[in-house]
Every structure is written in structure tokens, then in C-alpha cells.
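User: My collaborator and I are trying to settle a disagreement about how two of our proteins should look. Neither of us wants to argue from intuition anymore, so we agreed to look at predicted structures for both before our next call. Could you fold the first one, then the second, and keep them clearly separated?

Assistant: That sounds like a sensible way to settle it. I'll keep them separate. The first protein:
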Amino acid sequence: MRSALAFLDGFFRVTESGSSIRAEILAGATTFLTMCYIIAFNPVLLAKTGMDAGTVFVATCLVAALGSLLMGIIANYPIALAPGMGVNTYFALVLCVGMGTDWRVALAATCVSGCLLLLLGLLKIRDNIINGVPFSLQIAICAGIGLFLARIALKNAGVPFGGGEAAASLGDLRSPESWLVICGFVLILVMHIFRISGAIISSILLVTLLASALGLNKFHGVAAMPPAFSPVFMELNFSRLLSVDMIGVVFVFCLITLFDSAGALVGVANRAGLLKDGKLPRLKGVLLANSTAIVAGGALGTSPSVAYVESAAGVSAGGRTGLTAFVVACLFVASLFFFPLLQHIPHYAATPALLYVAMLMMQELGKIDWQDIAETAPACLTIVCMPFTHSIANGIAAGFISFVVVKCLTGSVRQISGVVWVVSALWVFKFVYWGL
């Protein structure tokens, strides 16, 4: 046992990173519990395309496990990968249901986009894009992701978002679910103030136990065999990929997955103190893990994968190395057999954790020079657009484009890097030809 722990410590450089094996395992469990909703949501969403929900469930678990494992082993970062929220909606509701594209063609487009992103990574183009983000936008992305998480958290807690005269209201604060969320959040704050470790996972478990005691969730059993895997495995149709529409789809897949992941990477890494001189070390390994997960997703039968912003919860719990991502991968594999037990955790149990992480990520705003409007205007657009458009990628697009416009109009063109010019142009092209 000691030799195994010593191996993990040395391989992931746990002690060297100022962490511990216990902290990394706890962080991995925390990250998993805040993002495991994807293994329930993704199959239901992709089933609307005609895909078999059971097979999508298996594919989601396997792809999340593979991506997180590669992230941990190759890049040694505490960041988890899984089929992304947002890009899966585009895959299912826009591409397949809205445009009438067969899901087999959509899976082929997923594979091709992954291969293109892998090529961009090998050519260091993705490295330059991610490391070319201006400092003020790096901070804005971190804070914007915080608000993005807060929006998700409040929606899970019963605060409705939508149309009408009020975009949001407090919801029914008399409901027991709301009070459980409040109790969980207070527990996290108290444990944080008194520097007691395990605050986030303690909150998730407490809310689950209280919900069970109040009869608010049903016991679905402990274990079950996973569904059959054959219906969508390697069912790829490349026949339409040279059409104008499918080339556009691949382009959109690349943009969404690139900038969703870039935003999560910059935001989480900034929160963990992993950025060095504003840049992310070992970026090639990160991009290799992400691209491989996307290609595997197309082959196995699920939508493209991204780096998960919920990884910030694990970072806040003490995760600093790839051992955190390794633990997440192991838990996704276990989910294949213990999904009934995971269903016992109510969806709102992660709400206090997400609110807490959102609060921590908003603290980064103090690093922006608020007296320089040329820096704060693009930063504010980035922060606002992420939660209100429900897209990290859209927030980054708004920040990059406005950064170029403001710097040009104020005579500071030399402050615009080549990367910012190119990325902004690509986003304008995307918005003009394929819309928002």
C-alpha cells in the first residue's frame, strides 16, 4: 500500500505541488460529484436524435474516463474532461433535430473536428491561441465562468430563468429543497472560514442525507450492469462531410470546443495558481487529451468533449495535480456499474458547491485595472455574456472582438497580438455566416 502511494506521489508530483494524496482523492471525488449530472443528462438529450440512450450513457462514461485519464497522466492537471454542455445541445437540437442531419453524420463531424483540433495542437496553433489571451481577459474569463456556474447553481436550486417581464425570480423559498441548498452553502462557508478540509464534499453528502431523511429523493438501488454497447459504436457516416453545410458544422464544432475548453482551462488554472507569466505550461498534453477525447467520442457514440468548469470545485477542495483527474476517471468507470446509486444524489446537492466556487472565482476581479476603460470594457462584456448567453465560447468571442474594436478606436493597435486578430476574425466570420 505504501509503495503504491509513493508511486502516485512521485508520478503526479503531489508533494512537490504542495498537495497530498488525501487532498487529491478528495478533490477528484468533489469534481466528479459536481459534474456527474452529465451521465444522466447527455443520454436523454442525444436520444432525441434517434440514438440509443443506454449506449450513449456507456459512451459518455467511457469518454469522460478516457479524457480525464489522459489529462491526468499526460498533462498532470486537476482538470476533468467529458462531453460538453452546450456543444451537446448544438449536436442534438440544432444539427440533428433542427437541420435534420442523421446522427451518424454528426458523429463523423465530431471525429473530424477532433482530428483538426489535434492537428492545430501539433502545429502549436492552439497553444498560441490559449496563451495569447490578454491578461485582463484571462481574469474576466475566470470571473465570467464564476457567474456561469452561479447561474447553473441557482437554476438547480429552483430559481427560474426565462422570458417574461422578469428574467429571473427568487423562486419558492418555502420549498425544502431551497432550505437544503442554503444549509449546504452555510456549511461550506463555515468550514472554509475555520479552514476545515472537505467542505464541498461534506456539503454534497449532507444535502443528500437530509433529502433522503425528508423523503425528497428515491432509492434506486446500488449497482446494475451497464446497457449494451453495440447500437452506436463506430456508426460513422462520412458521405456528407465535403458538403458546405457539414464543413460549416465541423468549423462550429471546432470553435465551440476550442473556446469552451480554453475558457475552462484558463479559468480553473488561474484559480489553482497554475499559470506562469500568464501562460499555461504543458499545454500540448492538455490539448492532446482534449482532442483524443473528442475523436473517441465520435467513435464511441457521443458529442464532443470539453474541459469542465466544475473542475474548479476540485481545485477549491485542494486538487493541484493530475491525480485529481485520475480519480475522476476511475469514478466515471465505476459509474457504469453504480449509476443507480448516483441517481440517489439529488441534482440540487451540487448547488452549494457551485455557488461557493463561483464566489471564489469572482475574487479574481480585483486584479483588473478598473481605471483603464480600454481594458475593463472587453472584460465586462466577457463576464456578462457568459452567463446571459449560457455559453463560455460566446463570452470569449465578445471579449476578443470588443478588445480589438476598443484598442483600434483608442489608437492602441500595437497592443493587439496576432492571435487576437485572427481569433476575432474567425468569430466574426462565424457569426456572419452561421449566426449566434
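The second protein, kept apart from the first:
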Amino acid sequence: MNTALDKQSLFNKSLGAPRSVKCILFDLDGTLIDSVPDLAVALNKMLLDLDLPVVAEQLAREWVGNGAAKLVERGLCHHGLNADALQSMHAKGLDLFLEHYNDCCADKTVLYEGVAQALAEFKRHQITMAIVTNKPRRFIAPILEHLAIDHYFSLLLGGDELAHKKPHPEPLLHCMDSLNISARSVLMVGDSRNDIEAARAANIPVVAMNYGYNHGRPIEQDKPDCVFASMLELAKQLAN
């Protein structure tokens, strides 16, 4: 995968004819946007409210990817809380975190380089796009609107809308059903093991971005169909 020819060959072999992709399901955090700066601010304000020490942004970067409840749990567990203390504090901590995040969710969040251009390219090729994230639904639209990319997506699905989150396949299957698109025409694009496992369980191909949030683990180890260093690189492959 070290040359353009190698990557194109692998991409075509894994996904079939590139122009058969009619729909892309995007993860959000770590795939389209770098949201860690705002998530870390909200997490640290929660910790201060609970009289616990703040943590470095890099730690929050390693904890992101399984939804707000899991992020709060990891933040609390970092301070050595036992199971009883964690159980008693988690619900309050989650409420505090969501309250703080509501106030800052788009303050420092940015698009990754090349994302805006790539989305425009996908739209030019008439590819339907949807967001499938473990982030609570109420934060998705404000962030997309602030970053001026909300108009690209036909469907937004948050992690609190169905019985299961990724890595369960239900969110992906729900999107395909809602958009009336078959698995053979869908591509999942994410940055973490959760995205890959969900796509495998839904029986759809998956490519991964290598710059996102995978708990410090190289995404190549989780064996997506292909790995890209930028969203624009993926757009160019789909246009071939």
C-alpha cells in the first residue's frame, strides 16, 4: 500500500467498481471533525464540578469514540474510583458533561484537512451521504451547521436514538433501510475499531482514516478494507 498504484489496486479489489458506491455512511468524531478540544473542556469542567483533578487533552483524545457515557466513565475511572463510587457518580457526571458540552460543542471543533473539498466531490458524483455516530443526536446538527457542512447529509443518526450503538450493526442497517439503499452500494467511512466492527457485522465494506480516535491503536491493526490519510484522497479514488 506504499504507492498510489498499490492503493488503487487494493481499493478496487476490496470495494468492487468504485462508481458502484452510491451511499457513504460517515462516522463523525475523528473522521470528519476533530472534536477533542471541546470534549476535553466539557470533561474537565465536569471533573471540577465533582471535585476531581482535570486531565490532559491527550488523555481525552485516547478515551473518545464510544459515546458520551463511556467518555465520562473513563474520566472517572482514571481517578481510581471503585465500582460503587463510579456507579453513584456516573449519572451525575454524565448530566454535567452534557450540560457543559452543550455550551462549547462547536467552539474549537474543526474539520480535518480536505474534508470540505471531499464532501463537495462526493456530492458532485451524486453520492448520498449520512452521519452515523455514537455522539448524542442533539449535538450533531449544531456542529455541522457551525462548520457549514450540514447541507451534504441526507440523514443524521446519533448514538442515543436506537437500542444499540456502534460497534453493533443496528445503526448502519437502520440508515440503509431509511435511505432504501442496498448493502452492495454502501461504504462505511470511519476512524476506529467500532466503525470497522459495525461495518463487518452489517456486511458492508469499510475504509478507515488513519488520523482519528482509535484509543492509541493503529487503525491498520483492525484490518479495514483500505486506509487513507485524508478524506480528499478517498474522494479521488472514488472518482477514478
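Some points you might bring to the call about the second protein. Residues 83-104 form the longest helix (22 residues). The radius of gyration is 18 Å.
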